[in-house]
Amino acid sequence: MNIGVVIDNELNDDKRVLREIQILKEAGHRIFVLCFGFNNRNYTTIEGINVTRIRISKKLKDFIFFFLNLVPAYEWLWCVRVKEFIEANRIDFLHVHDLYMSKAASHGIRKSGRKIPMILDLHENYPYAVTTYNWTKGFLRKLLSRPFVWHKKEKEYLGYADCIIVLSDDFRDVLTERYPELRNEKFISFPNVPDISFREPDKPGSVKIKIDKSKTVVFYFGVVAERRGVFDVIDVFMQLAKENHPSAFLVIGPVDKKDRERFLSKVNSELLAGRIYYIPWIDLSELSSYLDISDICIAPFHKNPQHESGVANKIFDYMLGKKPIIASDCRPQKNLIEKYNCGIIYPNSDEMKSAIIKLSSDARLRTEMGENGFRAILKELNTATLRDNLLRIYSI
Questions:
Q1: Cα–Cα dist 311/83, whole Å
Q2: What would the pLDDT profile of 309-337 be if each residue is shown by its tens digit?
Q3: 290, 210 contact by CB (below 8 A)
Q4: Residue 193 near residue 388 (C-beta atoms within 8 A)
Q5: How confident is the model at residue 281, as a pLDDT?
Q6: Looking at the domain that runs over 216-379, which CATH code has it been given?
Q7: Per-domain residue ranges for the chain?
Q8: pLDDT per position as a tens digit, 238-269
Q9: 261-316 tens-digit pLDDT
């Protein structure tokens, strides 16, 4: 079967899409991908996949997308390219990523003349998430980008799909409660679980910092932003520093532009000297090296509809690294961590602080929780055990 995958981004760095493609490829399907190729960048060939890249500058792509709700040129572009893609590769199923791509892909299918099913893969609760992005904030930006419109458009865009993939049963339940006409059978849950059959070897000398080994290291990996709760962790570490608690905070990830000045001022404060370490980014092949030098991992996301749509990649990365997790009480990650007893959930900053102190003082508990999470990944939470969830879509 010829399966077409449509993603309005670069393919090579999208872990979720690549995992799904691998499962489909191993099942014997022929995979064709339509995606963007930005700024004349050269991309590594992915074996066994036919990739068609729409060459465009990242700045122009972002500009066109920004105005999607005023002038739908973005959808016109994708509609034409999807039609051509389907015709050229005689696609039997179209697997489309992200809510906002649904209408363009559906119209592209219709214009191609091929009556093929469309699978819609939701990576997030987009109508809520888009209202939190910095590029939609401010009076003029909000007026032009109109992020609030997505709450009205969600039902229409979900309706174009024959099947919908979500990150969790929780998000499926939210959508079916909001739109009772969407049957449970239309949904498939496929979380961001890792592929344990392959793990990139560590790059030699990949750890770029020296950390005081007398301190317990709490590690956060990912985008640094207010909405992700990183500043809440920093505030707790300021309290711990005043109490001379033997702990340190390691942060790896890019900082949202709007939050950069505030973040760097805290990182460089005298109070946190020797207690907070920051690296703007690392290659994913280096992640296990930083997990190895950490004692505890943290997922401090603010509780909101976006963060309750599924469990983030980093949670599974932490579990694979055998680390105990301290996490906010967003429902999907709370359910997972409590089910497998691989960490501590907190509802507020005081409880976060207590969790850091508790795990810092109990190496045995850290090891036990870390091993619990690792066993859950090996036995249940991986692509090998959940692959059938994805593959049964293609029997509709």
A1: 33
A2: 889 989 999 999 999 999 999 999 999 99
A3: no
A4: no
A5: 86
A6: 3.40.50.2000
A7: 2-193+383-395, 216-379
A8: 999 999 999 999 999 999 888 899 999 998 99
A9: 999 999 899 999 989 999 998 888 889 999 999 999 999 999 888 888 889 989 99
The residues pairing with 276 across neighbouring beta strands, listed in sequence order, are 249
The Cα–Cα gap between 310 and 312 comes to: 6
Let me know if the fold of 2-193+383-395 is the same as that of 216-379: yes
Q: In CATH, which of 3.40.50.2000, 1.10.357.10, 3.30.70.60, 3.40.50.720 is domain 2-193+383-395?
A: 3.40.50.2000
Of 190, 173, 199, 222, which is closest to residue 311 (Cα–Cα)?
190
The confidence score (pLDDT) of residue 200 equals 60
Average pLDDT of 386-392?
Answer: 91
Terminal CA-CA length for the chain: 13
Beta-carbon contacts of 184 under 8 Å, excluding residues fewer than 6 positions away, are: 172, 176
Distances (CA, A) of 242 to 122, 140, 383: 43, 42, 44
As a whole number of angstroms, the distance between CA 224 and CA 226 comes to: 7
pLDDT of residue 15: 86
Each residue of 208-246: b (16+ CB within 10 Å) or e? eeeeeeebbbbbbbbebbbbbbbbbbbebbeebbeeebe
Q: Are 10 and 35 in contact (CB under 8 A)?
A: yes
